[in-house]
């Protein structure tokens, strides 16, 4: 608009009126009011002033193009009433305001008022003219200006006491007002900040950005700019400045801005961002950061063909480092000692890698290294060795020198088509292999390992399905009262799974799978339910005379996770009752290890069930943390002496009276006796073993010598014929699927 006004003036008169300088025109042009610059020669008193320049609002008012207004005598445009000064005699010494009639080109008149501002005379100004600026005050203007002033006052009051730092410019980049909050933010009195001084408080390299933002707001845009201010004390604050354009009639384009100090928020956000990406104990990048890095490496570039961009994962290896037996440190020395060890290991690992490599701690006692330049196996070996050695050096904790060992699983990323999570999972599989091979070594996840892992995953899925469909069967191994013949006393229920393609899978194999997939509680519950149902039906058949005998009770294996699971006791009660049995019809076989892992909790559950009649046996007795000390306190009815003791019983040389195995077995039996517990010998395969255990006083025997685990059909046959079992030395085990 300013330029337009200048333009019309140029076209009209060929040069600016001598006494009206650029600043004045700026002032007038910025106003939306009709305005005229008029002048007459100084010497020509009583000459009618003529229009030198007209604003476009004036052109609108008079209905004449601005250029055509130029040179017109103002008497042609304005008629002054009797109360006003003669237009030939406009005062030079003061501003005057008077009523006029404005005459439009069509001859119509409009009553209004005019303010005449004398333009100060400049010495040496060209032509020696007197000039005035005449502004026409339209009634609407009056009202809106009053409203505007009131609004401005209200705004000023609000802003002044507002806690939000606020800045106001009436025109251009110069501040006309700032509130106390802004003065406080910058640390200077408000007076020092008015004018353009505030810009010097913008940090040097940010200033061009702020100047640009100010230019944009003056052009009528709303702008938000993030920048930094340096306060009087030299401190840098991060701020967000929001600028809104504001036009002050009679002045021009300015703005109103609020300034938000975001320093603390940013600091908090930075801290949170840091925490989200780092492990707080060691300061290493955490799982999230690791996954992001891996996603960058395996994410893109994989789908492109040979002509596409280079594989970003070329030569990059991922090493998952897992401390062997770290739990022992944590449990034995306490979590603080464990933490100290982890911090030390983190420090060492960070030193073994090169700049640009990553050491992350995704969790627990697990570290992951992402290393470049692992282009061949020698390089992998060298890096893995360095890591193993770094871990191996003694660590001092609480004055103790500990020697730690790690297992490492390595995955090479080059050409790998999988997600970041899958890389971590694969590295975990490789670690598992390294541990299974004895620990303290590294394993590369090659095709073999991958195939095995995939098979395990598939088996887990198949097992889950079999469990859901009732595809897991239960076989029963007789537990006999020794003698010739021996007589069936009770049964141990043992799960059996025949894979549709792979054939029978050994229980210890699929139970380990089930443990990893958290399927054990479901498995145990299934076996208990089937065993109860079967026992109930044999009882009924026996009562009806269709079976010659039926077992006293049935024993089921209860693993530690089942026992610790919420609602275990209630589940057992429900299952037993559903089959129409009582708790004393079942025996729960629990291993020493299961008892030791969470003694108090297990005890409570077992005590409760036992109080209502359930029997409890300690399975595999002698293989756990021999718990003779607390045996007497356990809610237990009998012990099952582990197969490994029984196996060695036959090795007694001539004259050695049975050898050390016999001595151990004898001690166990006599201890059990002292405690009033029964003893079952497991895994009896030979006559010799049978003789020894019965001599020692075991009242029950379980083993291939009497019977292998039987299918329910074979067992029914045994019950039908009276439950007598003739000892027969064991034949080799039928072929079963290895791991
Ligand atoms: P366990 O509880 O010690 O079960 C006895 C194991 O010894 C059975 O192996 C049985 O077949 C075997 N056995 C019995 N007599 C002899 C013998 O004279 N010689 C030899 N060499 N072995 C004999 P199985 O059925 O393979 O079960 C292995 C383990 O799997 C069981 O050991 C038990 O710990 C676990 N298991 C079996 N069924 C279940 C179940 O339903 N739940 C849970 N949690 N574990 C189960
Ligand atoms: Ca058992
Ligand atoms: Ca056992």
Question: Mean of residue pLDDT?
Answer: 84
Beta strand count: 28
Number of helices: 26
Fraction in helix:
40-55%
List the ions, cofactors and other small molecules found in this model.
ligand C2E, calcium ion
Helix/strand structural class: alpha+beta
Beta-strand share of residues: 15-25%
- Compute the CA-based radius of gyration: 48 Å
Strand count, sense and barrel status of the largest sheet are:
10 strands, mixed
The N- to C-terminal Cα distance equals 87 Å
Low-confidence stretches: 1-20, 301-305, 651-656
So, CATH architecture of the largest domain? Alpha-Beta Barrel
- State the CATH topology of the largest domain: TIM Barrel
Number of structural domains? 4
Can you offer a commentary on this structure?
With 739 residues, the chain is an alpha+beta fold. It folds into four domains: 2-139, PAS domain (Beta-Lactamase, 2-Layer Sandwich); 145-266, PAS domain (Beta-Lactamase, 2-Layer Sandwich), CATH 3.30.450.20; 278-445, Alpha-Beta Plaits (2-Layer Sandwich), CATH 3.30.70.270; 460-725, Alpha-Beta Barrel (TIM Barrel). It is 41% helix and 23% strand. The protein contains 26 helices and 28 strands. Strands 19, 20, 21, 22, 23, 24, 25, 26, 27 and 28 form a ten-stranded mixed β-sheet that branches. Helix 10 packs across helix 14, helix 11 packs antiparallel against helix 12 (335-352) and helix 17 runs parallel beside helix 19. The model is unreliable at 1-20, 301-305 and 651-656 (pLDDT under 50). Ligand C2E is lined by residues 477, 494-495, 507-508, 511, 520, 523-524, 527, 557, 559, 589, 619-620, 643, 683-685, 702-704, 709, 730. Ligand C2E binds next to strand 20, helix 16, helix 17 and strand 24.
């Amino acid at each position: 608009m300013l330029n337009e006004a200048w333009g019309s003036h140029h076209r009209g008169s060929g040069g600016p009126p001598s006494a009206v300088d650029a600043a004045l025109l700026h002032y007038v042009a910025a106003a939306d009011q009709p305005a005229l610059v008029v002048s007459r020669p100084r010497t020509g008193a009583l000459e009618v002033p003529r229009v030198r320049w007209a604003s476009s609002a004036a052109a609108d008012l008079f209905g004449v193009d601005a250029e055509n207004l130029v040179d017109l005598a103002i008497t042609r445009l304005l008629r002054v009433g009797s109360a006003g000064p003669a237009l030939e005699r406009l005062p030079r010494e003061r501003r005057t305001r008077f009523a006029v009639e404005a005459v439009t080109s069509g001859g119509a008149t409009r009553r209004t008022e005019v303010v005449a501002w004398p333009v100060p005379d400049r010495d040496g100004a060209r032509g020696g003219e007197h000039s005035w600026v005449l502004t026409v005050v339209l009634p609407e203007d009056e009202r809106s200006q009053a409203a505007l002033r009131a609004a401005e006052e209200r705004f000023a009051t609000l802003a002044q006491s507002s806690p939000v730092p606020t800045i106001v410019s009436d025109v251009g980049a110069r501040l006309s007002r700032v509130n106390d909050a802004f003065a406080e933010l910058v640390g200077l009195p408000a007076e020092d900040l008015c004018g353009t001084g505030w810009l010097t408080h913008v940090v040097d390299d940010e200033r061009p950005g702020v100047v640009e933002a100010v230019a944009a707001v003056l052009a009528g845009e709303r702008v938000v700019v993030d920048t930094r201010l340096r306060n009087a004390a030299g401190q840098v604050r991060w701020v967000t400045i929001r600028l809104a354009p504001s036009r002050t009639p009679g002045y021009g384009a300015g703005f109103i801005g609020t300034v938000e100090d975001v320093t603390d928020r940013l600091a908090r956000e930075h801290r949170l961002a840091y925490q989200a990406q780092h492990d707080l104990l060691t300061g290493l990048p955490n799982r999230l950061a690791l996954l992001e890095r891996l996603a960058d490496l395996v994410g893109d570039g994989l789908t492109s063909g040979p002509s596409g961009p280079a594989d970003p994962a070329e030569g990059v290896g991922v090493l998952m480092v897992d401390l062997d037996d770290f739990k022992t440190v944590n449990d034995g020395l306490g979590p603080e000692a464990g933490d100290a060890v982890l911090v030390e290991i983190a420090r060492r690992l960070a030193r073994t890698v090169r700049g640009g490599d990553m050491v992350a701690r995704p969790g627990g006692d697990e570290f992951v290294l992402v290393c470049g330049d692992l282009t061949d196996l020698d390089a992998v070996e060298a890096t893995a060795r360095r890591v193993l050695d770094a871990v191996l050096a003694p660590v001092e904790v609480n004055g103790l020198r500990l020697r730690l060992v790690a297992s490492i699983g390595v995955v090479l990323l080059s050409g790998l088509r999988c997600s970041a999570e899958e890389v971590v999972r694969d590295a975990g599989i490789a670690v598992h292999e390294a541990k299974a091979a004895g620990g303290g070594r590294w394993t590369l996840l090659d095709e073999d390992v991958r195939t095995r892992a995939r098979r395990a995953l598939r088996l887990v899925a198949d097992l889950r399905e079999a469990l859901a469909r009732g595809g897991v069967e239960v076989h029963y191994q007789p537990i006999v009262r020794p003698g010739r013949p021996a007589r069936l006393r009770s049964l141990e229920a043992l799960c059996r799974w025949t894979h549709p393609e792979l054939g029978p899978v050994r229980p210890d194999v699929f139970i380990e799978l089930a443990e990893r997939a958290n399927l054990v509680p479901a498995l145990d519950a299934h076996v208990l339910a089937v065993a109860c149902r079967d026992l109930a039906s044999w009882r009924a058949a026996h009562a009806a005379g269709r079976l010659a005998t039926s077992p006293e009770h049935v024993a089921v294996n209860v693993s530690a996770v089942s026992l610790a699971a919420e609602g275990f006791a209630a589940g057992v009660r429900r299952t037993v009752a559903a089959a129409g049995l009582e708790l004393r019809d079942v025996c729960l076989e629990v291993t020493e290890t299961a008892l030791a892992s969470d003694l108090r909790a297990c005890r409570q559950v077992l005590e409760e069930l036992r109080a209502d009649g359930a029997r409890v046996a300690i399975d595999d007795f002698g293989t756990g943390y021999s718990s003779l000390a607390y045996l007497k306190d356990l809610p237990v009815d009998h012990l099952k002496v582990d197969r490994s003791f029984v196996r060695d019983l036959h090795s007694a040389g001539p004259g050695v009276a049975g050898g050390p195995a016999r001595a151990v077995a004898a001690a166990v039996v006599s201890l059990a006796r002292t405690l009033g517990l029964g003893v079952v010998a497991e895994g009896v395969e030979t006559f010799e073993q049978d003789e020894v255990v019965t001599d020692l006083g075991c009242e029950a025997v379980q083993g291939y010598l009497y019977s292998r685990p039987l299918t329910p059909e074979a067992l029914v046959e045994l019950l039908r014929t009276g439950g007598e079992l003739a000892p027969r030395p064991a034949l080799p085990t039928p072929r079963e699927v290895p791991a």
